[in-house]
Design goal:
mainly alpha; elongated; 2 domains; Arc Repressor Mutant, subunit A; Rna Polymerase Sigma Factor, Chain: A
Length: about 170
């Protein structure tokens, strides 16, 4: 399939692709960026292999990019800003939180912090990369020079510690 045929298909479907992306991400500027990335990704894929059903491939690529963007945005929204001092983090209280909920959350955070500080530096790095940065097991394994299986086992142990801390606090 020629690159000019791809250009024809892309230009013919550009408007509907853009509207689809805008509906998904609810931001015109981001949708434009994703549309541009779609073009680049499909063009790269065409250089590597033949694509039999080009139009559905273009739409699926755009959809996947939008979903990746939304996932990253949700993860970022849940992630604590790393530059925030721990003392400031402890003083954050949810609006309208009941006093006992606030105290419980504070005790839980203190217990978790104490438990996580007892982890080895590698375990702390695995926890941070996985739970705060959203990295996958293979990404963490590559960064730390260990196997993905090791990352998985370490993270399972770390999460068991976190669950144990929460369970002990619930029994109090």
């Amino acid at each position: 399939m020629s690159h000019s045929h791809f250009n024809d298909v892309f230009l013919a479907r550009r408007t509907i692709l853009l509207r689809t992306l805008q509906r998904m991400v609810r931001n015109s500027s981001t949708a434009e960026d994703l549309l541009q990335e779609t073009y680049l990704r499909v063009a790269r894929a065409l250089r590597e292999r033949a694509i039999e059903h080009l139009e559905p491939f273009v739409f699926q690529t755009a959809r996947n990019l939008a979903l990746d963007h939304l996932r990253a945005r949700r993860l970022h929204a849940r992630t604590v800003v790393e530059d925030l001092p721990l003392a400031d983090l402890h003083s954050i209280v949810a609006p309208n939180a009941a006093l006992e909920d606030t105290e419980h959350a504070s005790r839980l955070l203190q217990s978790l912090t104490a438990s996580l500080e007892k982890l080895t530096p590698r375990q702390q790095k695995i926890f941070t990369l996985s739970r705060l940065n959203g990295c996958s097991y293979p990404e963490i394994a590559e960064e730390l020079g260990v196997s993905a299986s090791t990352v998985q086992k370490e993270l399972k142990l770390i999460m068991a510690i976190c669950v144990g801390v929460a369970a002990r606090l619930e029994r109090r």
